[in-house]
Every structure is written in C-alpha cells, then in structure tokens.
Amino acid sequence: MTTRKLLLLPGDGIGPEAMAEVEKLISLMNEVAGSGFETETGLVGGAAYDVHGAAISDADMELAKTADAILFGAVGGPKWDKNSYETRPESGLLRLRKDLDLFANLRPAICYPALAEASSLKRELVDGLDILILRELTGGVYFGLPKEITELGNGQKRGVDTQVYQTYEIERIARAAFELARTRRGKVTSMEKRNVMVTGVLWNEVVTAVHADYPDVELEHMLADAGGMQLVRAPKQFDVIVTDNLFGDMLSDIAAMLTGSLGMLPSASLGPADETTGRRNAMYEPVHGSAPDISGKGIANPIAMIASFAMALRYSFNMIEEADKLKASIAEVLQAGIRTGDIMSEGARQVGTVEMGDAIAESFRAKLS
Ligand code: NAD
Ligand code: IPM
Ligand code: MN
C-alpha cells in the first residue's frame, strides 16, 4: 500500500481548531478508502517559541523537508507581539517558505453560489467567481536585504526593507502562471508598479518575455493599485493574477472578501519539481491568520483549512477525484444552509467549528464509500 507522509503544523490560535477538522478527514480517508496517510505533528509559531525559543525548530524543519506535504494552520497572537523580529511566530512560516523554496503560492478565490449573499459585494458581481491569485512567495520585500532598523544618533531611527527580484525568480513564477492559465480560462493578468518601482519594470519585462512561449494564453499588465480597484469593481474579469510577494499578500485578502470570508480561502505553496524524481516541496495553508479575537471559542470557520487539504490531495498526491469530492462536500454543506458565524446569513443554521467539520466529513464519507 502507498504511504503518504503528512507533517501537520497546527500553530497558534484557531490553527489547531481548524487542523482538528482536517485530521478527522485524514482518518476517514484511511479508514474508508485505505489512503495510507501517515501523520506527524510538529510545532510552529508561538507554540514552538514557547518550547524551543524559536518559531520552528531545526528538527521540525528536517521533518518538513522529508514530508510528502505539510499542512499548516496559522501562527501569531498578542502573547508574542513583543518578540524580536527574528523570534516572532511569523518567522517560522517565513523560514518554511524560504528554506523549502516554496516560490509559487496559489490562492484560489471561489465564490460558492450559496455564499454569494455573504460577500460584501453585490451578488451579480461575485456569483460564480473563480479566480486564482498566484503570489510569488520567496522573494521581494519579505526577504530582500538590507532589512534593518538603525539608530541615527540624533534621536531618529531609520527602518529599511528592500524589494529585490532577479530574472529567474520572475521567470519561474510567470511560467507557473501561464501553465495554470492553460488549465483554466487562458488569461493571465500581471500586476506590479512599474511606474514607481524598478523591480516592477523588470517584472513587466520578464513576464512579457516568458509570454512568448505561451502564445495561446492572453497576457495583460495592470498596475497593482488599479488591480486592487478592479478586483472589487468587476472581479470576474480575471482568471489568473500573477504578482509579487507583498502585492499578492494584500490582493489575496481583498479577494477573500469576494468569497464571503477570510475563513474560506485556501492556499498551496509549491517548490520547484525535482528534474529526475518530479518530487516537490509543498505546504498547504489557509490564507487567514490565527484570529486571536475568536480563538478558543469553537466558532472559527474550518473551510479554508479543509479546502487547503483538498489542494494537497490535488497537487501533492494526484488524488483528483478525492479532491473534487471534498470540494463538492463543502459546496453541499453550504447549500444545505449550514454556516459558521463569519458566513452566516438569514435563514441559515449557525454552527461551530466542530459541527461544520462533522457535516463536511459526513458528506465526504458518503461520496467516498
Ligand atoms: P486574521 O486572519 O487572523 O483575522 C482577521 C479577521 O478575520 C479576524 O476578525 C478574524 O476573526 C477573522 N477570521 C480569520 N479567519 C477566520 C476563520 N477561519 N473563521 C472565522 N473568522 C476568521 O488576521 P489578523 O487579525 O490581522 O492577524 C492575527 C495574527 O495572525 C497576527 O499575528 C498575524 O501576523 C497572523 N497571521 C498569520 C497568518 C498565517 O499563519 N498564515 C496569516 C495572516 C495573519
Ligand atoms: C499570509 C500572512 C503572512 C504573510 C504572515 C503571517 C507572515 O499574512 O500568509 O498571508 O504576510 O505572508
Ligand atoms: Mn496575508
């Protein structure tokens, strides 16, 4: 029997609450379909800092490098807000992304028909929405050097972050965007700010050059600020949006609200495929954070985490049928009017994290057996 090695990193706040609902699905798949998942659980974020003094230990990094896929919950919280930049919970997530070279972050924003009312936009603008934000995840201002605060000696300090991109980094994310667009509606919108940033000029130039290999895909360029505006004005005009690390972070939170809630948006972070084995590092994480305002209350929406697991089935394990069934189960439960508080609407039944997870698991079980 195939064994599939999963590393679970639940993290902080609502991370562990959402992860528990995915663990149910993993057990279910092993039991009903003999899927052969083997899980190990590690510490990340504040939870790791409290034990190891670092937001991820070297030992857990080693597990991450050998797992077939990593499922990541969320990190951060007020308890660690005064930590130094190097030991903040978020640094564990950044180390995972950088050390595993997870350069391609797929953030699909899909508006389930049942949730069109939960969006802050009018139904007709979001009904049937299916766009993919492809965020470059290992470069740009997140990792550029220097990154420092220096004392100027006159009572002033100077903070510097540095936006850096090299050709190969833009080339590989552009290639990923065109390849993904080919499996979808064949359109890529590249967003940067070439009017102010030289990295934007280079980004635009390299994406245009890579496009020559993909004449069947339509390419358009948009300034990122205008792109943000277009995302809320007429989001269905987009298919794949490819953009840098920081713009991708902000644009995907905006896109989340088109789908009803940040609690709905999954993501996949993929590394390059090994040329001989085809294996790639991969981590799956919801777009939302640890939600300190609702953690411990049992009310968090687990769908972003569950849909991230569905992306793991698709991209790491090639279990396309199972991934489709899991997505269909999410849609079915929403259609039945079962809602967590963040996506609640009139006439629906409000449930907590565990009941939402149970309802999805029940529907999934029926589809698997
Ligand atoms: P957040 O995503 O944690 O929360 C923003 C808002 O959305 C909150 O009101 C929260 O209650 C709500 N929300 C988020 N996920 C939800 C869910 N599943 N169900 C229902 N409601 C949900 O962002 P924030 O408050 O800006 O950040 C909190 C902490 O999380 C910070 O420390 C931040 O750095 C961290 N963070 C971590 C990640 C990650 O681990 N990938 C992502 C974003 C933020
Ligand atoms: C995200 C988060 C992270 C980011 C933080 C927690 C480091 O906001 O995954 O969207 O900024 O990339
Ligand atoms: Mn973010």
UniProtKB/TrEMBL annotation:
Lineage: superkingdom: Bacteria
Assigned keywords, A-Z: Amino-acid biosynthesis, Branched-chain amino acid biosynthesis, Cytoplasm, Leucine biosynthesis, Magnesium, Manganese, Metal-binding, NAD, Oxidoreductase
Enzyme Commission number(s) from the entry: 1.1.1.85
SUPFAM superfamilies (UniProt xref): Isocitrate/Isopropylmalate dehydrogenase-like
Biological-process GO terms, alphabetical: L-leucine biosynthetic process
Residue positions binding substrate: R97, R107, R135, D225
Site (Important for catalysis): Y142, K193
Residues holding NAD(+): 77-90, 289-301
Subunit record text: Homodimer.
UniProt record similarity statement: Belongs to the isocitrate and isopropylmalate dehydrogenases family. LeuB type 1 subfamily.
PANTHER family xref list: 3-ISOPROPYLMALATE DEHYDROGENASE (PTHR42979)
Protein's job: Catalyzes the oxidation of 3-carboxy-2-hydroxy-4-methylpentanoate (3-isopropylmalate) to 3-carboxy-4-methyl-2-oxopentanoate. The product decarboxylates to 4-methyl-2 oxopentanoate.
Protein name (Swiss-Prot/TrEMBL): 3-isopropylmalate dehydrogenase
Organism name: Aureimonas fodinaquatilis
